[in-house]
Design brief:
mainly alpha; 14 helices; globular
Length: 305
């Protein structure tokens, strides 16, 4: 191994230790304090703690990014904080269109899988201003959540993935990075985040599903980050991904019987279609983006930024 790769490995290891350490300490401590898995607790204090863990925890990868650069004296070149959109608007548009598309398609896939005995028209015929307002609220909240989403993206796509791609072929790096990202969520998954604690195969099935989803998402997020030399498109996607799914479902499933059926589904049952639609939409979008030819002049400007 060359000396430069040894330095990259060292920096990557330091970053991952700093990124993983807080959740793997804080979540067990909170579980011990409240006496139960914190994300399924009905204790109001636990709810506040969960919110803080979710919002501020998403900033951990960026903090790890900064500390690693300082400790290893790497400096702050190639930070992916530039915003040169010239010739790259397709990638920025895809960062918003893709999560809108797969969140919407998930709604129809869930209907087809779990409630197609209720007609399509009956399922969606009561969409009203209240349900549209709920959807608009989720869209607005996604703008606010851009900031914690940026906290993750500047760490994973802005630091981890470039380092992994220095050490291994890009397809392998995408898989390895996705699994790492999924395992970073493991303490949250064990504590009931996303899936609860009452599903078959708990917690390993949940951890595995997070690793699968994170790997699929990593392919898309890495692509748009690499092509734009910016983490902002990935942060847009991440914010929308985290907030649109259930908002769209609960606003469009306006039929009372359909709503009851939806509320009766387990998190695993709704998550599987979600992963499937993400895979299809992200795959199609990635193919379209990879067919896009960037002009050499624009590419040189991107590198300069």
């Amino acid at each position: 191994m060359s000396n430069s790769k040894k330095i990259t490995v060292k920096r990557l290891v330091i970053f991952l230790i700093l990124a993983f350490f807080p959740f793997y300490i804080i979540v067990p401590v909170m579980w011990s304090y409240f006496g139960e898995p914190i994300f399924v607790s009905e204790n109001p204090d636990a709810a506040v703690a969960n919110y803080c863990v979710g919002v501020f925890g998403m900033m951990i990868p960026s903090i790890a990014h900064i500390i690693t650069r300082l400790v290893t004296k790497e400096g702050f070149k190639n930070t992916y904080l530039g915003l040169n959109t010239k010739g790259k608007m397709g990638y920025f548009a895809a960062s918003v269109i893709a999560p809108l598309a797969y969140s919407s398609l998930t709604v129809f896939l869930i209907w087809a899988l779990y409630m197609n005995d209720i007609s399509f028209g009956d399922t969606f015929n009561n969409v009203n201003m209240q349900s549209i307002g709920l959807l608009m609220l989720q869209l607005g909240y996604s703008v606010i959540c851009f900031f914690p989403a940026f906290g993750e993206e500047w760490g994973w796509r802005g630091y981890m993935m470039p380092k992994l791609m220095e050490l291994m072929p890009k397809p392998v790096a995408v898989i390895v990075g996705g699994v790492i990202w999924g395992l970073w969520h493991a303490p949250l998954t064990v504590a009931g985040h996303n899936f609860g604690v009452d599903y078959p195969g708990y917690p390993f099935v949940g951890i595995g599903m997070m690793c699968l989803m994170c790997t699929v998402m990593n392919a898309f997020l890495t692509l748009i980050t690499e092509k734009t030399k910016s983490v902002y498109p990935a942060a847009f996607t991440h914010a929308l991904n985290n907030n649109l799914g259930m908002g769209i479902m609960f606003s469009l499933f306006s039929n009372e019987e359909a709503m009851q059926r939806l509320e009766g589904l387990s998190a695993i049952e709704t998550f599987l279609p979600f992963i499937g639609t993400i895979g299809v939409v992200v795959g199609i979008v990635c193919i379209i983006l990879l067919m896009k030819k960037d002009k050499p002049k624009e590419e040189s400007l991107e590198k300069a930024a």
